[in-house]
Amino acid sequence: MKNIFGILLLMISCGSKESKQTKVNSIETTVSSVDNRIVIPFEPDSLLNAPSHIAHYLIRKFNKEYAGLKDKDITGVKFIGNERVKGFGIVQIYNITLSDNLPEVFTKSNYLVVNKDKKQAALFLLDTLFFIKTSFNDSTILLGGIEKIKAKGFFLIYDFAGENEFKEILNSLDYCENGIPVFNNSTDCISYKPFMLDYKNIDMNNDGILDVNFSGEVASYCTGLETGYGRNDRPPVEVSKINFTFILRPERNHHFKSELLSQDSVCALIK
């Protein structure tokens, strides 16, 4: 009976979509699912109201992402600027900050992207937002950024796929055994120097499409099978250069996909 009950539980858990909370609680045991961002109807003038009314509206509209939050848990909504997002149009971008007193499952810095003409918006659960160009001759951008999970940050890129959805075309958490962080200030055996790798949006393979490149140094504080040492315990026993590129490749209808160059060598460096 216990075995049957266990099998049923396993079937239920395997059939359910992974939540953000699962990724936060265990990087090591989780395979991330695609995190597309849904575009919803949104009233831009709601952002002209009093702060408490803005917070209430955001929690109501993004009830899945902000489930359980109270108005006071949104501590700030700041206008960042206007951008032209590929396929979606001219948008206003706002940084939303959440209370530091909230559990770590909540990303404390979010980004709201509002198309005023279409009266639509999408919420991106990213700690840092990046504007990614795909060509020197194209003023439109893709949206991307860093999602921090404990002491590490992973890079994501979204492409507006139409049909009211931003499609995740890159998540560096999906590579190697435990993902490829672009930010790492861990006190475990491996961290980065500097903690945030250098970022470049350049054409790496001379195909006319701009790519995403990261470089820096990996500091190793353990040797062999040793564990329990980190940057707070002793100087690094080895420092290695790291340099990797996510190539953007065009698809039909002006959309993109991504792939990692030299994956095996990168995975070996951060193992």
Task: Describe what this molecule looks like in 3D.
- A hairpin with a 3-residue loop joins strand 3 and strand 4 (89-98).
- Residues 1-32 have low confidence and may be disordered.
- The chain has 4 helices and 15 strands.
- The radius of gyration is 20 Å and the shape is globular.
- 14% of the residues lie in helices and 41% in strands.
- The protein has helices at residues 2-15, 20-25, 51-61, 263-270; strands at 37-38, 40-41, 74-85, 89-98, 109-115, 120-124, 128-133, 141-149, 152-160, 165-171, 183-184, 190-202, 211-220, 238-250, 256-260.
- The strands form 3 sheets. Strands 1, 7, 8, 9, 10 and 11 form a 6-stranded antiparallel beta sheet that branches.
- The chain is mostly beta strands.
